[in-house]
UniProtKB/TrEMBL annotation:
Matches recorded under PANTHER family: AUXIN EFFLUX CARRIER FAMILY PROTEIN (PTHR36838), TRANSPORTER AUXIN EFFLUX CARRIER EC FAMILY (PTHR36838:SF3)
Keyword Transmembrane helix: yes
Location of this chain's protein in the cell: Membrane
InterPro entries assigned to the protein according to its UniProt record, in alphabetical order: Mem_transp_PIN-like
Matching Pfam families: Mem_trans
Superkingdom, natural source: Bacteria
Keyword Transmembrane helix listed: yes
Organism: Ottowia pentelensis
Protein name as catalogued: AEC family transporter
Keywords: Cell membrane, Membrane, Transmembrane, Transmembrane helix, Transport
Membrane topology of the entry: Multi-pass membrane protein
Residue ranges of the TM segments: 6-25, 37-56, 68-85, 92-116, 122-148, 169-189, 209-227, 234-255, 261-280, 292-314
Length: 317
């Protein structure tokens, strides 16, 4: 099996789904007025089911966190470095999230399984189980803090003491469509009760619909975006995600003695294209929606080449 085969096998369905959405948007089968409602469906219904079920059924006591701790350290440092480099703003936070948040589920799982076998999935599932909990919660807290600061600076609300601003931002971050189902699911998992099939099956069906519907929605939005004007910015973000992120992960892993399948899985995960959750974040906060939409599509296409190179180089280690 060539190295290219698992890459294209995993990425082509994503490209096709985005293409279907693009065609539906251009043919006006899904009109612009419906995009916000579809975004709410994905963000407020489908992703809720996915996140809650993932955390509620995870056996956190059996997860080996050693192989993924470094991934989050590298991702977090890159997030804050990009945030500082672009300036402390909610816009910068969304773009920084795009540079670190991978499409681990729809692309990562089939790619890693095809390339490295079922043994590698243990490391990847450990990463996935904490992916949204750590990165999306981090991004939500930062975004809420920056939005509160921007509103205060614009005179959109009363000026508060920094402690009150932080407390309000933390409250908004917890009572948020992403961290809340993660937290509730995590707390439920501690009971050890499991989910009854009557509850688990509808949640699973809704969660399974998240990825395809979100990617079709990316395509619909892309059809309404003048991608030519966003191409340069989208290429820059895609390069950060699919080139810089895995390079930093590989360098950090090598420096700290990480090797074998755990290193390969973490580097490949870092090289994955931008996850659809970033698109939903940009929609929710109304920040750089066109640029993020273009970046998701561009990074998916770019990843066909960059992941092939990454996996080729990892094969020599």
């Amino acid at each position: 099996m060539s190295l290219d085969q698992p890459v294209f096998s995993a990425l082509l369905p994503v490209v096709v789904l985005i293409g279907i959405g693009f065609a539906a948007g251009r043919l006006q089968l899904i009109r612009g007025a419906a995009v916000r409602d579809l975004s709410n469906l994905v963000f407020l219904v489908l992703v809720q089911a996915l996140l809650f079920r993932t955390m509620a059924t995870a056996r956190l006591d059996r997860l080996d966190l050693h192989s993924v701790a470094l991934y989050y350290v590298v991702s977090g440092l890159l997030f804050f470095a990009l945030l500082l480099a672009r300036g402390l703003s909610s816009r910068s936070a969304v773009l920084a999230l795009a540079a670190i948040f991978s499409n681990t589920l729809m692309i990562g799982v089939p790619l890693v399984q095809l390339a490295y076998g079922d043994a590698a999935l243990v490391s990847l599932f450990t990463l996935i189980s904490m992916h949204a909990l750590i990165l999306l919660t981090l991004a939500t807290v930062v975004l809420e803090l920056l939005v509160a600061r921007e509103q205060a600076a614009a005179g959109a609300g009363p000026r508060r003491h920094i402690a009150a601003t932080v407390a309000r931002a933390m409250k908004n971050a917890v009572l948020h469509p992403v961290p809340l189902p993660i937290i509730v699911g995590f707390l439920y998992s501690l009971t050890g009760w499991g989910l009854h099939p009557v509850v688990e099956q509808p949640l699973r069906l809704l969660g399974n619909a998240f990825g395809p519907v979100a990617l079709v929605l990316v395509g619909v939005t892309l059809a309404q975006t003048a991608i030519g004007t966003q191409l340069k910015g989208a290429l820059q973000i895609a390069a950060l995600k699919t080139v810089l992120h895995p390079l930093l992960m590989a360098a950090a892993g090598w420096a700290l003695g990480l090797s074998g399948l755990p290193l390969k899985v973490m580097v490949v995960a870092a090289a994955l294209p931008i996850g659809a959750n970033v698109f939903l974040f940009s929609q929710r906060y109304h920040k750089e929606e066109d640029l993020v939409t273009a970046a998701v599509a561009v990074s998916t296409v770019m990843a066909m080449g960059s992941i092939s190179v990454v996996m080729g180089l990892l094969g020599t280690l």
